[in-house]
Amino acid sequence: MTQPPLTRRLSSLITSDQAVPNLRRYFGTSLLHEAEPFTGSRFEHLAGGGDRQAVANVVTAHDLIAVQTLSVRISAQVALDLLEGDLGVRLSKLLSSIPFDIDMVEAEAADLAEGSPAHTAWRLLYDQPGIGWVKAGKLLARKRPRLLPVYDQVVRCVLGRPKSFWLDLHGALRADNHALHRELMALRQAADLPATVSVLRVCDVVLWMHHRTDHQQRSCRSRSQSAGPVSSASTAPR
């Protein structure tokens, strides 16, 4: 059976010769130590992670700093609302219905589809002033790193601008008895990364490192329109 385009693209990039060196460069596990790791290497691990049981259902100041390691910033107005206001209460209620202890490959499509708590949380954040789809996705990826992926213009571009990223990625990870998921776990081990780096984050970094320079040089962002995680729906730099 012919693989869907997204699955073929993911597989080709994950198995490329540059995947392991790029992961080591990003996370600072290269034996050469030629440069400092990227700030995003701390995204999942800062202050023990955003999915720790004690804080899994609330947005903390550490979460807002973690998002900054991926080169985006939540405005002070929205940050205060998340930390102390009604927005934080509403998001917390939704987070309590989103599992924090399963990988995307273990989830059902209904857990990611429109109308699910995850998508409703994304939409709630997306609708806030100055947030949009990139920041909304990154904040949710901090809270649910195993279930929800980081997604920005670079990744969207390198994958051919999929219309339903969460669902398409979910399908790709589950195909062929979870073959792609297993490849990503093997890649994580080959790059000497701890198991606490999620499979989704391994995938994101491989894709982003592969295309980031070309993306800037080709001004790909000028051709980007809006895109939500489940259906075409918005953009900010990483």
Walk me through what this model shows.
- With 238 residues, the chain is mostly helical.
- It has one domain.
- The protein is 50% helix and 0% strand.
- The longest helix has 26 residues.
- The C terminus is likely disordered.
Characteristics:
single chain, 238 residues, mainly alpha, 10 helices, globular, disordered C terminus
Rg from C-alpha positions?
A: 17 Å
Oligomer status: single chain
Q: What is the end-to-end distance? A: 36 Å
Mean pLDDT: 91
- The general outline is globular
Domain tally: 1
Alpha plus pi helix count? 10
Helix % is 40-55%
Strand content: under 5%
Topology, element by element:
Layout: H1 5-14, H2 19-27, H3 61-68, H4 76-84, H5 86-95, H6 117-126, H7 132-143, H8 153-158, H9 165-190, H10 199-217
